[in-house]
Every structure is written in C-alpha cells, then in structure tokens.
Amino acid sequence: MVKRVALTAIATATFTLSLQAERISGAGASFPAPLYYDWAYDYHKATGKEVNYQSIGSGGGIKQVGSRIVDFGASDKPLKPKKLDKKRLYQFPAVIGSIVVVYNIPGIGDAELRLENKDIADIFMGKIRYWDDKAIAQDNPHLKLPHEKITVIHRSDGSGTTFNFSYFLSNVSEDWRNEIGVGKALSWPTGIGAKGNEGISNLLKQTPYSIGYVEYAYKKRNSFSAATIQTKNGKWVKPAEENFIAAAKYASWDPNKHFYQILALQPGDNSYPIVAATFILLPREKNETNKKVTAFFDWAFKNGDESAQRLGYIPLPQSTKDMIRAYWKKHNIDPSN
Q1: What is the value of pTM for the model shown?
Q2: Domains present along the chain, CATH in parentheses
C-alpha cells in the first residue's frame, strides 16, 4: 500500500511538472486582451498548451515582467532601446489596434458626432463642459445637441491606451502638451477614473452623456458610438477599419531598435489618427521559456489573423512577421531551434 501511494505521488508530481512545462503566463495591456484570450483559447484547443493572460494595464505588465513575475509582459507603450537594455528585455509587436473616442449621448448614433481634435483635448481637460457648447455645435449643425454636462471617463491605472491617447492629444493641442503631457498615468483635471478598457466600457454604459476612450475591440463588443474625428491634415475620418488600415500601412519597423515606434498621426487623407501597436516584452535571460512564448505568438501569426480581424484589430503584414521571426532567431528565442 505504501509503495502504491508513493508511485501515485510520483505520477502526480510528474503530471504537475508536465502541466507546468506546457503553461506560460503573461500580464499587461487591456488593449489587446480580447484578442489574446481568443488566441489562447484556440491555441490550447489546437496544441493542448495553456496561456494564462491577465489584463492589468500596460504599466502593470511592464512592472511584472521587469520583476520576472510573469513569462511575458504586454504593453501598448513601446519601451525605448535604452530602457529595454536597463530592464534586460526583448520587445516585438503582436498586433495593431486603434483607440476610439466613445460617447453615450441618447439619440446620437455611431459616427454621427464630429469632434475636432483640439476640442477632444479641451473636453478631456474640462474646458468644454456641455454637449451643446458652440465649439461642438459648429461642427454638428445636423444634430440636436443636449444642454447636458459632459462626464469625462478616463483610465485610473497605468495604461498604454492612455499613453497613445495622450500622445495624440499632445500633438493636436498646445494646451494639452503644456498642461498635461504624455504618459501612461496622468494628473487628470476632470472626470471619473476607471481601471482598464473594461472599466471605461462598463462606466460609459452606465453613465448617460459621458465620453471616454477605448480600444476599438471594446467599441465593437459593446456596440458603442464613436466620434468621427480628424486626420493629421484635418480631414474628417470615421472610426472604421479601412481607415485604421490606411494609417497602419505607414508603420516602419526597425528590429535593431527592438521595433520601437509610435503609430499615431500618420499621413494620408484616410488615415485614422489614433492607431497603435501593442508589444510583447520578454526577459533576456530566459531563453527556453521565451521559446515557449514565441511558439505561441508564432502560432498566432500563422493562425490568428481571422480572429484579429473579427475583433477589430489589424494583423501584422507577413513582411513584419518575418522580420519578427528573424529577430527571434538573432536572439536565440526562435521556437524552431
């Protein structure tokens, strides 16, 4: 009996170790979370291997992978090469998404509301306080705007979505640039804070006459209305996938800089102005674990484009995927080795 118990214990331990060997963990950006959940589900179904991802915000993802708590971090704010060297991290893009300005105004549908880029900054600074303000009304003569106070909803956590949104606002508004600036976490002059794209989505649904900013996948999932805004050269552009793709085509990646690039405000009459890539961060010293992570993303690059498009993301072009695979090979984290 003792021998049988011992054998059972050994078998259980072996099984547990086997499961641990087939599981990787990641944490970070809420921006790509719907897609990573989808990819992880399909990957497990196809391979039996598990990917556990926690949507905690880009700041949390950078912190956890920097402390080696998770196998990979995810951030919509790319880290510059010097910071990657300091933290001993690799970095590569996984997918491209877009940030849309969503609103809950009864009677006003999707893309019906036009907001000039500088007015978006003034709304999120609390300088435009009512929906029928003349700055908004002059661009929307076709709408009956209510005299209701605008409730601003913003992120309360360290967020790559906030980084990209504030980068956009800093480039379209001198006041924003001088008074607020760019960052994952900001000193917001007005509004209500919520954690994650999920938190903003939930609060927006519950709050009439509110405005917020979320990744497009959350807009699609919740059937939110999103504003028509302006391109870099001032043309009106709807929050539509063909306009996200028009902006994404200008991406120019440099693997020697660990793919560092900010994609907002690309040229072109149809280029939606708040497009962003989301990035994966890997500890440089963990080659074998990194190969398990890159195996997952390699599988996703081969099999996950349909999921990405269905959810509203823009898959990386094949040339970029090949560049990423060459980067993996250079750093000895290619899953085929």
Answers
A1: 0.90
A2: 2-96+251-261+276-330 (3.40.190.10), 99-248 (3.40.190.10)
